[in-house]
Every structure is written in C-alpha cells, then in structure tokens.
Amino acid sequence: xxxxxxxxxxxxxxxxxxxxxxxxxxxxxxxxxxxxxxxxxxxxxxxxxxxxxxxxxxxxxxxxxxxxxxxxxxxxxxxxxxxxxxxxxxxxxxxxxxxxxxxxxxxxxxxxxxxxxxxxxxxxxxxxxxxxxxxxxxxxxxxxxxxxxxxxxxxxxxxxxxxxxxxxxxxxxxxxxxxxxxxxxxxxxxxxxxxxxxxxxxxxxxxxxxxxxxxxxxxxxxxxxxxxxxxxxxxxxxxxxxxxxxxxxx
Length: 250
Prior knowledge:
single chain; mainly alpha; globular
C-alpha cells in the first residue's frame, strides 16, 4: 500500500493540466478573442522555454555528466538534437496530412503530444521520489503542478478556439496530464528496478528540444499573426515570473 500516496501525488500533479484548461470557460468578447489567444500563447511560450532552460536542460546535463564528462555531453547533445529534429519531422507530417485543420488546432495537438512526453518521465521522477521520501515527493509534486497548470492552457486554448468544442479541449488537456500517473504506474509495476537517472535525464533533454522547437517555430509565428505586441510582452513577462517562482521556491 506504500505505493498509493506516491501515485496520488503523481496523479494530482499530472491532472493539474485540466485546471489550466478551465480558462476556456471564461467568457471573452468576440472583439477580444484574438488578444486573449495571443496572451495565452505568449504566456505558454515563456513557460515551455523557461522550464526547458532553467530546469530540464541544466539538471539533466549535470546528471548525465556526473562521473563521465565526455560521455555525458555526447548523450545530452544527441538527446536534445533528436528532440529537435524528431518534432520537425512530426510537424512536417502533420502539415502534409492534416490540410483541413487550422494552425491553432495543429498547435494544440503538438503541444499535447510534447507535454505528454514531458509528463511521462516527470511522473516516473515524482513517483520514485515520493516512494523513497514523501516530503521530497510532495515538494516535487507541487513544483510540477505549478507549471502543469499553464501547460494545460497551451493545449486547451488553441484547440478550443479552433474547434469551439470545450469537451475536446478539456479532453486533450486531460490526456496530456494522464501521462504523468501512467508513467508513475509503469515505474512501479515494470521499471522500478531498471529506471536510471541517465534514462530520465535523456528523455527530459529530448523533451526540452521538442518544447523549445515548438515554441520558436510554431507558437511564436502564430502569436505574431495577431499583431498584439503589448500582450505578447505581458504574456512572456508573466510566464517568466512564474517560471522563476517555480524554480527558486520549490
């Protein structure tokens, strides 16, 4: 029964993406919809790049290079580059096959898939931490919850305003968050004795490459279309502040 509390912590942290998705229930006047989307996407850009730069990349890099500098650097570079070119290939395939869907919808799906990959190893890390030390697991769970909420926004807002379907938007955010307890379950049932710090760090660096690429190549150009510079700066500023709070306080 000792595994239930770590699993609960991972589940709450993961499904907090749904809390972020609830932002679509706020009533926005038609004339302000473009401004709202521009702000939410800008906020999400700061979250995704900020988490990658302040948490995923440095922590994973330090773990990989501990005891083997050259080998660790090589694994880190390969993981990051695979993430970049892997998502570029995926974007190419989506653009080729889903010609009838809007850019906003494609963006929401890309964010969902990227964050599922992100949440899966996070679920493993949260579960394993809480399994060994409940206090550490709770601290890590709160930190993950704080950045999962805005990640839910990055999925739900583009999908909702592309489809006008609240259930679809909530479902996609839910599926993304579900990857976290799924990762925790796999950690307990299958991989508990096989998961290494090298494995988790490699996956997180791959995810960092994916999130940075999506932010720069897909989300930023979409925001620019709305020509809302002030809201872009406001969204990026607030997102950056949240990343800093998350990084230094948890």
